[in-house]
Specification:
It contains twelve helices and 18 strands. The protein has about 400 residues and is of the alpha+beta class. Strand 17 and strand 18 form a beta hairpin. It is elongated.
Length: about 400
């Protein structure tokens, strides 16, 4: 088995985790909130400059509709053929500009802290840096390598979704270096689908003391809706619901004429998603004198652990064993752009980024000890002919 995985090629790349950490810190030092396309363009400019003089083709898709730009990097040297191996990452974060001034990058032992470092500056850096090294060394991979970076993932990829689906449809397989959760080496082979809904009740205001019965309370209606939706967590085996925000009313002595909620739904499979989205959009008010508006729908389809995904994971597990790296698998309730690729019928392996924790939290961090192993695994997946044969045949 070792000979089949081309051990000379595996030894050709020695990754220095500390040196890679410096590059990750450089990226984290460039704040890129989703609502700042100008700052997203700045980091994409930096990425583009790192490929100066290398035999790659770079396409920039400009920012639009308030969303950050996108970048596609293609490496297609003579001698490689077939559909590309696609790596997908995002450079936007949930952190507002100015966060670094309050919470600068710091290191405590193996933990490297910084806003956006875990989700997912570290993984996106590793994807681009791995491709840069392969191109710089003149390695001819079994098939072309393509890296895609977007700047609107944290807000649902509204602009980049079409590009993601197109690129995934052209790919042999898709690797997503989103954060790794759980034990070191864990990858993601399934993710729930995600839908969100806004429910707004329109009632009738009235004086709460003088003529309360003339009013129709929108808050009362929304209370009914909350209890009913939350109860679906008990009745639905493959979906979960969370009422995340509640708003409404004006004053305590006024019957509220308007109230609303935001609902998050996670779902395991597409058939359930279609059924429950239709049910949510068809909801009606309990009080016939209340008008209930429901908006929303499915943002990301489920990423299902298909036979093709299992084959890709099995190939990665065999390769990781050859490299002496731990690897395991998990499913996640959180979504990624890998959901779009998987729904497009492509084999996807997600969670290939660094280990750590605290996504979207003030203790967000990566484990420095996981940087070099993940870089080595990505490099091997992109350059090993035997791995790619196992993954796609």
């Amino acid at each position: 088995m070792a000979e089949e995985f081309e051990p000379a090629l595996m030894r050709a790349q020695a990754f220095d985790g500390e040196k890679l950490a410096e590059g990750i810190v450089d990226w984290v030092g460039m704040e890129t909130p989703s609502d700042r396309p100008d700052l997203i363009d700045r980091i994409l400019d930096r990425v583009e400059r790192t490929f100066d003089g290398l035999p790659v083709e770079i396409q920039r898709l400009p920012a639009r509709d308030g969303c950050g730009g996108q970048m596609v990097i293609d490496y297609r040297p003579a001698g490689c053929d077939g559909d590309a191996a696609l790596l997908m990452g995002h450079v936007d974060t949930v952190w507002s500009a100015g966060t670094l001034a309050q919470r600068p990058v710091r290191r405590e032992g193996d933990r490297l802290y910084g806003p956006g470092i875990f989700d997912m500056k570290a993984g996106s850096y590793l994807a681009t840096e791995t491709l840069r090294r392969i191109a710089r060394q003149g390695i001819v991979p079994p098939r072309p390598v393509r890296v895609f970076l977007n700047g609107d993932e944290e807000i649902g990829s509204p602009v980049s979704r079409g590009t993601i689906e197109r690129l995934a449809g052209e790919a042999a397989f898709v690797l997503v270096p989103e954060p790794s959760y759980g034990a070191p080496g864990t990858v993601v082979t399934a993710r729930k689908g995600w839908a969100r809904f806004d429910l707004t009740a329109h009632g009738l205001s009235a004086h709460a003391g003088g003529n309360r019965d003339d009013g129709r309370s929108a808050i009362r209606e929304i209370a009914h809706q909350i209890l009913d939706i939350e109860a679906m967590n008990d009745s639905e085996r493959t979906a979960t619901f969370n009422v995340g925000t509640v708003h409404g009313g004006t004053r305590a002595n006024v019957v509220p004429d308007k109230a609303g909620i935001e609902v998050d739904m996670r779902v395991d499979d597409m058939a359930t998603a279609e059924r429950l989205v239709a049910a949510m959009l068809a909801r009606r008010a309990v009080d016939r004198d209340i008008r209930l508006e429901v908006d929303g729908g499915l943002n990301r389809p489920p990423f299902v652990r298909s036979p093709a995904v299992v084959r890709l994971y099995s190939a990665a597990r065999a390769l990781a064993a050859h490299l002496g790296l731990p690897i395991g698998e998990t499913s996640r309730g959180g979504v990624s752009d890998g959901n779009f690729a998987a729904a497009n019928g492509r084999p996807v392996l997600d969670g290939l980024g660094c280990g750590g924790g605290g996504a979207h939290a003030i203790d967000e961090h990566i484990l420095v000890s996981t940087i070099a192993p993940r870089a080595a695994l990505l490099h091997a997946m992109l350059t090993s002919r035997h791995f790619q044969s196992l993954a796609t045949d």
